[in-house]
Amino acid sequence: MEVKRIGVVGAGQMGSGIAQVAASAGYEVVLVDVAESFLERGLAAIRRSLGKFLEKGKITQEAHDEALGRIRTSLSLEDLKDADLIVEAIVEDEGEKRRLFERLGALAKPEAILASNTSSIPITALARYSGRPERFIGMHFFNPVPLMQLVEVIRGELTSEATRDVVVEVARRMGKTPLEVQDYPGFISNRLLMPMINEAIEALREGVASKEAIDGIMRLGMNHPMGPLELADFIGLDTCLAIMEVLHRGFGDDKYRPSPLLRRMVQAGLLGRKVGRGFYIYDEKGNKVG
Ligand code: NAI
Fold first, then answer.
1. 64 vs 141: CA distance, rounded Å
2. Nearest-CA residue for atom 40 of ligand 1
3. Which InterPro entries match (predicted)?
4. Are residues 259 and 172 in the same domain?
């Protein structure tokens, strides 16, 4: 099966990036969200990112214009009826994703593949909600999507090899490196990353070091490009909490218990860079200012 049209549901940090790399790879893209303002914000992020590539000479003016020209936005899932592949990137909440995949499973054309960009929710469960478990797969991109090389490909219990092959091919055409993992909580990326972030938050809560020292130690001592608290802000604290809860439930081990400070910050709406404040403070362009 050849993929020509890709639908992306959710125009947030991840969905807008996925739409951008899909369009840059030559696919026709329909980007769907629930409100015009979210679509506008997503498109603005795509324009900014493509603009930077153009400025740096990484793409031509023509490639820039063509990529933008291939992206349509919509408030209706009905506009995904013709898509060959639909990638979901909505909020990290199993109930929300379930409702969406029940609808997508019913309206997408029978041969279409459905993929989730979930960070941690079991692919096998989402596959079941979609009613087409053979044509369902995890396609886990990394933030910021236009810059990060990896796509973690997660096969559910019933995902077919043909589906895996199509998605691997699409990821490669987007210029990414797909790596396959089994469907266990947090897959590999977040099973390793999130407990580290959670532990950094616990260390901050206990007063072991300041946020600047915690981040500096991991940047300078471990050569991480970002410290764990900066990275948590970048990912979104709501997403971090949701992933820790999946790990905690999935493994039943207390070592995955979400930090109470993480929980409190999410309750306060301090979700990180996307809202302007988390562990640090950010301006409208997302630059750290405090
Ligand atoms: P976000 O909060 O930036 O964007 C989510 C978007 O989905 C919002 O625009 C929201 O309006 C929209 N949305 C919510 N419900 C919807 C629905 N029913 N239909 C259509 N649109 C809907 O979140 P972000 O960071 O883009 O995360 C999205 C997904 O990607 C989550 O599953 C997350 O776990 C995953 N992910 C996030 C990463 C990160 O670093 N933030 C990395 C890899 C995966």
1. 21
2. 235
3. 3-OHacyl-CoA_DH, 3-OHacyl-CoA_DH_NAD-bd, 3HC_DH_C, 6-PGluconate_DH-like_C_sf, 6PGD_dom2, NAD(P)-bd_dom_sf
4. no
Do 103 and 35 have their domain in common? Answer: yes
Mean pLDDT of the chain: 97
Nearest atom (ligand 1) to Cα of 243: 34
Assess whether 217 and 166 both reside in one domain: no
- Check whether residue 84 and residue 18 sit in a common domain: yes
pLDDT tens string 209-247? 999 999 999 999 999 999 999 999 999 999 999 999 999
Q: What is the ipTM metric for this complex?
A: 0.98
Looking at the fold, whether 135 and 25 belong to one and the same domain comes out as yes
Phi, psi of 263 (to 5 degrees): -60, -40
With DSSP H G I counted as helix, E B as strand and the rest as coil, what are the percentages for the chain, rounded to 5? 50, 15, 35
- Asked if residue 136 has pLDDT above 90, the reply is yes
* 229 and 173 within one domain: no
Tell me the three state secondary structure of residue 83: coil
Q: Among 259, 230, 266, 251, which residue's Cα sits nearest to residue 92?
A: 266
| Total domains present in the chain | 2
* Boundary (domain end) residue, out of 165, 182, 199: 182
- CA 213 / ligand 1 centre spacing (Å): 30
Share of the chain above pLDDT 70, in %: 100
pTM of the entire predicted model: 0.93
